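From: lab user (bench 3)
To: helpdesk
Subject: output format question, protein + S-adenosyl-L-homocysteine

Hello, I'm new to running complex predictions and I'm not sure whether the block I got back is the full result or only part of it. Here's what I submitted:
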Amino acid sequence: MNILSRITGFILLFLLWPAVRPAMSQDYARMRNDMMRDQIISRGITHRSTLQAMRKVERHLFVDKSLRSRAYDDNPLPIGYGQTISQPFIVAYMTSLIDPRAGDKILEIGTGSGYQAAVLAHITDSVYTIEIVKELGQSATKRLEELGYNNIRVIIGDGYYGLPGQAPFDAIVVTAAAEHIPPPLIEQLREGGKMVIPVGSQFMVQNLILVEKKKGRITTRNMMPVRFVPFTRKENPKD
Ligand code: SAH
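Helpdesk reply: Thanks, we reran it on our side. This is the complete output you should expect:
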């Protein structure tokens, strides 16, 4: 290589460096800030602790390395095994609907990447989350442990039955679309508690439903049409 082409190479690298260098933590912080402004606040989420939690959780650490630069985009992303990490707005909206408080005990069905559980764990003291795909449950357990979330318990199994041994829960968040609201989950909701769950089949319109238990009575409200991966009922067939 002659000296001229070497110099040209250096100049090119210098000019292109901002585009080719790996993203750094301050870039992710900026992306997270943009996400909060453009996707969450501008769409009307005002629940303070939800906003605080979503500002903190490093969403790029919940997706595959190759997808990190897209982690703060306005859409769900694949996490393997045909599953997805939900769109940031949906996580914020579902969190705000159940209105979690410090001291609450919360159950999530559908751990996936562990992101929704991490958002909840910044607000409340104890989060239980059930995942049916063993591999996803294992990788979320490892990730949450490494990130220091010691108030989240990941359980591998079918979330349809909830966790009777830990019930009642102050709130329940279901992040896969069920054909109907599983009766055991209604049973395990504390008096005054709230559950948010997408209901509908995979290829039809699904509705995000807010369920409340007041004086032993159940009320349900349709909040918005959504699209979630299906709630499945069998353990991973590879097991
Ligand atoms: N909350 C997740 C998004 C998960 S996508 C996140 O923040 O990343 C929905 C998840 O629900 C998938 O991982 C899927 O495997 C899981 N799932 C589907 N049916 C389930 C069931 N019956 N019990 C527990 N988990 C279930």
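A quick orientation on your result: The chain has a mean pLDDT of 93. Let us know if anything else is unclear.
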